[in-house]
What we know:
Rossmann fold; single chain; alpha/beta; binds NADP nicotinamide-adenine-dinucleotide phosphate
Amino acid sequence: MHKLRVAIVGASGYSGEELLRLLLAHPNLELTCITSRQEAGKPAGAVFPRYRECQLRFIQPDVDQIAAQADLAFLALPHGLANEYAAPLLQRGLKVIDISADFRLRSLEKYARYYQSEHPAPELLQEAVYGLPEYYRQDIRQARLVACPGCYPTSVLLPTLPLLKVALVETGGIEAFSMSGVTGAGRKLAAPFLFPECNESLRPYAITGHRHLPEIEQELALAAGVKELHINFLPHLVPVNRGIHSTILMQAKNEKAGEQALECLQQAYQNEPFVRVLGKGELADTKNVTMTNYCEIGCAYDPHTGKVILSSAVDNLSKGAAGQALQNLNIMAGWPEDCGLR
Ligand SMILES: NC(=O)c1ccc[n+]([C@@H]2O[C@H](COP(=O)([O-])OP(=O)(O)OC[C@H]3O[C@@H](n4cnc5c(N)ncnc54)[C@H](OP(=O)(O)O)[C@@H]3O)[C@@H](O)[C@H]2O)c1
């Protein structure tokens, strides 16, 4: 059987390494190409000794070479770079799954505002399918270009979308307090992410205007059927390697609606392979999802304040990045959605 040939562009970063881990174990595909400017020429096993047996060598990120070796490319690059690869790879007939933020926003104006530059390929922005399988599965099947959601947005959207869709909660006053492990910042040297700066400490950052905010608001507004919706999104850095936890407050429409929230979530996700809605009284815990593609969701209603309180946990590098990207590939290829992800 001809195996699908797959490339990872930016395979030496944290999301790229997680993709490498998952793709090497996937039964239906062949990892044929991995790129890194700094590691070019070295075998993957030399850069990541846990894959010592892997002799596949990093190459420079050259579009022609990638296209010659692969049918589909994952882009695991810093934002702003994906288009340099997506457009020419699509032209050469490859499919592309992008993990960066470059194709997630539908509004050119918001892209320019939050990323401080004009979008280089507006036509691709229109074409790209938002890669949240639980909501865009049909479109993902047909897609040439999939834009995987950010890690924070995945943790905020999965618990909140079902409640907005059936209008159990108000669209105003939503607050999301999210906490991310340090791999969320990427595998780069920067003082705020050095071990002594993060360890034994917990800090908020980008509490106004975080780049994931417009992506979250875009999908919440679509689910609620409103033009604009604003939330308070408060990210924090916590001293763990992997994992995101979000606590989200939403005002219930009324007491009955608040009491129905948990059941609504359980129904919405009863057939989803990677969303676990917890029982009454249970809250999400990152340690139960680390190194997995699951999102766990807990839900409580507080009649004292009228708030629905949601708790969700994902692994930022898996359901928040590489795992979700592979889930999308499985859908595009027509394979079982959990292939290589259990
Ligand atoms: N980390 C997470 O939890 C997470 C979660 C969801 C989404 N994402 C998104 O996924 C993308 C990758 O994130 P990451 O955390 O894995 O980043 P990272 O650890 O910094 O890795 C970036 C990768 O891109 C390569 N690269 C950097 N600049 C390049 C350039 N100019 N041309 C070609 N290759 C280049 C790097 O290798 P060389 O420098 O050797 O070329 C490296 O392999 C980002 O857009 C990020 O926002 C990350």
